[in-house]
Amino acid sequence: MSMRNLYSYINENSEKFLQELVSLVKHPSISARKEGVQECADIVEKLLLKTGFSTKVIPEKNGNPVIYGELKSSDSEKTIMFYDHYDVQPAEPLDEWDFGAFSGKIHEGRIYGRGSSDNKGNIVSRVKAVEAFLKETGGVPVNIKFVVEGEEEIGSPHFAPVVKKYKELFANDGTIWEFGGTNYQGQPEIYLGLKGVLSIELKAKGASQDVHSAYAPLVPNPAWHLIWALCSLKNPDDKILIEGFYDEVESISKQDLELLRKIPSEEKKLKKTLGLTQFLHHSTGVEAKKALLYSPTCTINGFLTGYTGKGSKTVLPKDATVKIDFRLVPNQMPKEILTKLISHLKKGGFEDIEIIRQGSTEPARTPVNERLVQVVVDAARKIYKKKVVVYPTSSASGPMHLFRNWLGCPVVSAGCSHANSKTHAPNENLTIDGFIKGTKLMATIINDFA
Amino acid sequence: MSMRNLYSYINENSEKFLQELVSLVKHPSISARKEGVQECADIVEKLLLKTGFSTKVIPEKNGNPVIYGELKSSDSEKTIMFYDHYDVQPAEPLDEWDFGAFSGKIHEGRIYGRGSSDNKGNIVSRVKAVEAFLKETGGVPVNIKFVVEGEEEIGSPHFAPVVKKYKELFANDGTIWEFGGTNYQGQPEIYLGLKGVLSIELKAKGASQDVHSAYAPLVPNPAWHLIWALCSLKNPDDKILIEGFYDEVESISKQDLELLRKIPSEEKKLKKTLGLTQFLHHSTGVEAKKALLYSPTCTINGFLTGYTGKGSKTVLPKDATVKIDFRLVPNQMPKEILTKLISHLKKGGFEDIEIIRQGSTEPARTPVNERLVQVVVDAARKIYKKKVVVYPTSSASGPMHLFRNWLGCPVVSAGCSHANSKTHAPNENLTIDGFIKGTKLMATIINDFA
Q1: What is the pTM of this model?
Q2: Do B212 and A320 touch (CB under 8 A)?
Q3: Which residues contact B116 (CB under 8 A, 6 or more apart)?
Q4: CA dist B239 → A224, A320, A347, B231, B246 (Å)
Q5: Residue A312's pLDDT is what?
Q6: A214 and B320 in contact by Cβ < 8 A?
Q7: Residues in CB range of B59: below 8 A, 6 or more apart
Q8: Is residue B311's pLDDT more than 90?
Q9: Using alpha carbons only, how large is chain A's radius of gyration in Å?
Q10: Are A208 and B274 in contact (CB < 8 Å)?
């Protein structure tokens, strides 16, 4: 069908769509602290119901509810699924936001707030793409399913049993993943895979109380103990020292390398945005792309011990905690990496350090020759009128493997963010233009997939 | 003179003295954050004035005021000085206090609150010992000077120029230092020296903003950088690896070793209090005493980077900060140690890490054969009716060297704390009995020194 009427509908209603996004951003939904998640799940369900979906709220055991939505097509047997999440990352450090972290402030063509880009903008744009079909054509050209979970930002710890249990309900012929957008040159970027992730917390304990630091020659310092353990995990060349950590890592395929070479270099702009003169180990060009997309990592996300206020305090802390995430590449399974980590710490004399597992997902990949990939690439070319950049994988993570490997459907990620969206950081934002183009992109994908 | 009337006066007025201490504890005076210091300085000055001292407020350039008090004797040419400080350590972690950190709560024979033991209890007990003389005899048997500073807990960064400038005013024949008390067996402990200290903060910087941890293969992580730097400072055997760090460290003298052997072992009780089954490196007996009093140290007091709230956050932090104190033994000068540290970091490729100096004092020692030592030992034996334990040095630090080395007077530390006073930790406290005995001890020292 001609998409002209749909695009017009989207243009004409863009202000209304934006206000719906503002109201969604204003609801904090921080899964790491279970803040506001139930309320946000309710809003998402209402959004789907209002649009015309039938919905189902799937309570996760010990977790946040998954919102499922379905809309049948009278024209097609095929089903397209949208995977999204209504939870967001914590907004700290709060004092580095120019506007309130949950203000949903609109300023100079952008909407600001935690979740604006990741992932609430995409939720709204996708639902609105469906609304455009319903309003303009009275139906949808393909069966449409939504699954919007509430724990993506903490590694989807309770999502796998849900996908297992609702395998039939979730069955689909192609899944559009939750993120994507445009690069610094405005070219649309789509992603065919994700790294895995294993998030953990390590906790070392010393005396039963904080002690005057004069006792340092006698009292074990858990901060030092933890730091020595960390130094045993990774050396200053960023080589991870856990025995067998790299055992399953594959070399890069020719096909992937070809895709990599086609990805435009955005090094200069990325460096400028991040205030860096060099990337780590001075990597550049294809080497930098390889590092970003094909290197597993071990990253300190946070470390806290003792006195961290102004000035000094001569204290010997009673405990120390570090948060770490490992990003994993195909064949590296979080479970196995955790086992290797436990054994590594034990061997190094760090068996007294408590390991708290906080979430994990496996790596996933969809081959570039899947039809869904071509549909998304063509749709993006039409909307953005620029060359489409295809990433064989993203450097980020999520429970894509549950769809790709368990449900067996192809999965492609595309969305309405942009290169300076500051995802996971202060001043996260989405451009209004990106939001509207993303909505049109989703409408086009629905149309072309059918 | 007979001390009986003075002891009676102290007994009869103990409740009043205690209330004065409560009111002093209730005034937070955290030098690390310049909280309430001026107000607390005013209270101390008023306490001295009310007692009969003439006072002088010495403004420290960029620092907190020093309160000086003087009371002439018509009977003696000699002068005894009391060194104290009205500032306190920060009270964090606040949620670990059973009563408010600045409540001054009296509970089961103890007063609780930050500063109760370190050092406000001693300030009040010393002033009240003088009050007893004035009320009971109409004068004091020896000239008495007080110097009460406001930055001891941050390494007295502005105190040295004050001592230099007021060398004549501060001149004395013997100084009683700010701390001391009884051990687990109720034996009085006195100290003839202090370790030096060098407090610093190290700050590593990465990108100009917090970044999504997916970028870890490209973006330097200041937390890792700082941790690698720390690992280069000290190994898991607690050996400090800075080149030349131990160069000036002397071996323990025979005289000191003799004193060490006389110090009763309180290992079991200290371990129990701290919830430890072993001291560091399983040291025990004389070896543990040697370690505590003669080892220089490098202690992490606090470390902060990234996200430290509940749950996980896949963030790559933009900076990381660690607070460290080095405790130094005789001949190790903070200035030289800092120079060695700077050179060490530079050599190791850590020259980009910012070093913020936060305060330092040099080590100091008074020989055991000084008359003042015998006066204090005899006075303590009279009051506590137990064997007096003489420490050749404390494991703690303070600006004692300014008095011992610059003014050239003997310095002995004695006070009213006890073995479980939890100095610098939550639930800091002082027993009422210790407070009253400490007041009698000070009166006896004044009497016997004259």
Answers
A1: 0.87
A2: no
A3: B21, B25, B104, B421, B428, B429, B430
A4: 12, 21, 21, 11, 10
A5: 86
A6: no
A7: B65
A8: no
A9: 23
A10: yes
DSSP A316-328: E-SEEEEEEEEEE
- The nearest CA of chain B is from the CA of A371 a distance in Å of 28
- Chain B 62-101, CB below 8 Å of chain A: which residues? 89-90, 92-93, 96
CB < 8 Å to B426, chain A: 209-210
What fold characterizes domain B197-259+293-361? Alpha-Beta Plaits (3.30.70)
* Interval B283-310: pLDDT, tens: 999 999 999 999 999 999 999 999 999 8
Omega before A119 within 30 of 0, i.e. cis: yes
Domain limits, CATH 3.40.630.10, in chain A: 4-195+364-449
CA distance, residue B73 to nearest chain A CA (Å): 38
Q: Is the ipTM of this complex over 0.85?
A: yes
DSSP run (H or E) holding B371:
helix B371-384
Contacts of B394 in chain A (CB under 8 A): 214
Q: Where in chain B is the domain with CATH 3.40.630.10?
A: 4-195+363-449
Residues in A 126-165 with any Cβ partner in B closer than 8 A: 153-155
More reliable by pLDDT, A37 or B311: A37
Tell me which architecture the domain covering A4-195+364-449 has in CATH.
3-Layer(aba) Sandwich (3.40)
For residue B295, which amino acid is it? S
pLDDT for the residue A1: 63
Mutation for testing the A interface, residue in B37, B87, B314 having most A CBs under 10 Å: B314
CA A93 to chain centre: 19
> What's the pLDDT tens digit per position in B393-436?
999 999 999 999 999 999 999 999 999 999 888 999 999 999 99
> Residue B155 has what pLDDT?
80
Architecture of domain A196-249+296-361: 2-Layer Sandwich (3.30)
Q: How far apart are the first and last CA of chain A?
A: 10
Tell me the average pLDDT of chain A.
Answer: 96
